[in-house]
Amino acid sequence: MSPAHRSRLLTHITADLVVLTIRSGQLHVLVVERDNEPFAGQLALPGGFLRGDETLDRTAARELREETGMDPGSLHLEQVGVYSDPDRDPRVRRVITCSYLAIAPNLPVPTAGSDAREARWVTVARLLAPRARLAFDHKRILADAVERAREKLQFSTVATAFCDAEFTIGDLREVYEAVWGVELDRPNFHRKVTDADGFVVSTGRKRTSAGGRPASLYRAGDAETISPPMMRTPRARK
Amino acid sequence: MSPAHRSRLLTHITADLVVLTIRSGQLHVLVVERDNEPFAGQLALPGGFLRGDETLDRTAARELREETGMDPGSLHLEQVGVYSDPDRDPRVRRVITCSYLAIAPNLPVPTAGSDAREARWVTVARLLAPRARLAFDHKRILADAVERAREKLQFSTVATAFCDAEFTIGDLREVYEAVWGVELDRPNFHRKVTDADGFVVSTGRKRTSAGGRPASLYRAGDAETISPPMMRTPRARK
DNA sequence: ACCGTAGGTGTCAGATCGACAATCAGGGAT
DNA sequence: ATCCCTGATTGTCGATCTGACACCTACGGT
User: Fold this and answer.
1) Which of A16, B77, B191, B223 is deepest in the core (most CB within 10 A)?
2) What percentage of residues in chain B have a pLDDT greater than 90?
3) Inter-chain contact A86–B53, Cβ cutoff 8 Å?
4) Nucleotide closest in space to A188 (CA vs C1')
């Protein structure tokens, strides 16, 4: 082992959060501005250290509440991957992180969190742009989590996690369009989603928004997977 | 924090391997018999501690070579998940592990590994049976990795990682049948696989084995995903 | 009353699927 | 040499799914 690493046998472990939501048709992620070195002033994903008596899942849930004021019980939260490059954190103690993907509906305004740092929504497109910078290896972590979300939309029903408890098929379609960056055929999407077993359940109600016929309201069904899967058909962006 | 955990702020990190292969139509996993406490004498997944100067991916690759004598460069190796229950390891130092799924063709006899402990293949079915026991939380880790493998067969081309460099469509079909525990329709499987873009590439050669018409040999194609996916059709087991 | 907009249904041709018949090409037995 | 058994591979067909797109519905706004 090289001398540079001899002093780093003690490792700390963190959970970092990639909290995604859709705002006005764009995929957004929650970021905080760092107060301290390293990377002070730069944007980073929210996250924090594992405590001695908790699992990483609990760390992720706790940080979600502490840093963003959101309720971990109410939204989709799943482990994505571990990042363990010895040099990913320049501090003396080596830090390994486990990333979590969280999916939230639009409603909550995160900055309202209690002891939250300056947390805010930024479009994923902006943070993944070639010249964009994030602290540590968070750009990579973000990219991996977004890719995970894109894949999961195809085969699972997580898309409903982006919506409120009651939503229209149009809302759901906007989720797919925002996350995949494609435009989907309305009629076909409607049929596929309503025909799929356990994806959406009709409540009797309707919602009448500005312009257009009132849309039926649905809530998420029991199913976790969709078969056959939703297909990501490449067509020109809106 | 409770006193019981106060002394466990220092954590060690391991990589554990779920090495899968197919032997005579059955899905097998590589296990070792533990020499030391805890769980001495019990079966466990191979794995080992992260070193100060390496990533977890490198730890997994190194342990694969050291404990099983296999060449990590030649087989599929992917991170699956992190297991961080504070009580998952009864030792004083808390141990968090990251599991890796490795997929190997049948050929290598693992016990031939250099400084390998007693390593051997056991059917997954046997280890996942209700009354079966594995050290630590390795039963859960195994179950999760196998489930990951099952899912990946649907949408990706990893099934070829179970085969030798050159293989027949029948070999590939046996992989699906063993991992999914179903019987697939030969003609339809053949068509689907050969029609899928970049899944398999025909070498000119043929292999003539005992009984039956000689089968054309293929090698893995460039594609990593299959679209449309392979469908797991439930039919009676052989 | 008319228009714009978005929700939702109908239709149709082409692709895919699952089932299964039929044909091909070896080895082994007679 | 011939027949039989086994698995590989090709054909066929009806049921289903998909993607494109016409068309009808029901609101708010003007």
Assistant:
1) A16
2) 76
3) yes
4) D19
- Which of A3-7, A71-75, A135-139, B113-117 has the highest mean predicted lDDT (pLDDT)? A135-139
User: Is A154 in contact with A148 (CB distance < 8 Å)?
Assistant: no
Q: From the CA of A108, how many Å to the C1' of C7? A: 27
Please identify which residue in the block is written with the tokens 């990579």. A140
The CA-CA-CA angle for residues B102, B108, B113, to 5°, reads 90
* Domains along the sequence of chain A with CATH: 3-142 (3.90.79.10), 156-220 (1.10.10.10)
Burial classification of residue A103, based on how many CB atoms lie within 10 Å of its CB (0-12 exposed, 13-18 middle, 19 or more buried): buried
pTM above 0.90, yes or no: yes
The DSSP code for A86 is T
Give the span between the Cα atoms of B74 and A75, in whole angstroms. Answer: 40
pLDDT in tens, B81-125: 999 999 999 988 899 999 999 999 986 665 544 455 678 899 999
Residue B190 CB neighbour total at 10 angstroms: 18
A140 backbone dihedrals φ, ψ, rounded to 5°: -65, -45
Q: Is the CB of B215 under 7 A from strand D?
A: yes
- Residue pair B103/B60 in contact by the 8 Å Cβ criterion: no
**A87 interface with B at CB cutoff 8 Å:** no
Q: What is chain B's mean pLDDT, rounded?
A: 90
Comparing A25-34, A101-110, A134-143, B64-73, which segment has the lowest mean pLDDT? A101-110
Q: What is the largest CA-CA distance in chain B?
A: 69
Active site residue B118: yes
For strand D, give the nucleotides within 7 A of a protein CB. Answer: 5-12, 17-23, 25-29
B93 touches chain A (CB under 8 A): no
**Selected residue with higher pLDDT from A196 and B7:** A196
Instruction: Check CB contact under 8 Å for B96 and A13.
Output: yes
DSSP A6: H
Q: Which residue of B has its CA nearest to A156?
A: B151
Q: Which residue is nearest to nucleotide C16 (CA to C1')?
A: B228
Q: What is the pLDDT of residues B184-207, one digit of tens each?
A: 999 999 999 999 999 999 999 999
B206 Cβ under 8 Å from any chain A Cβ: no
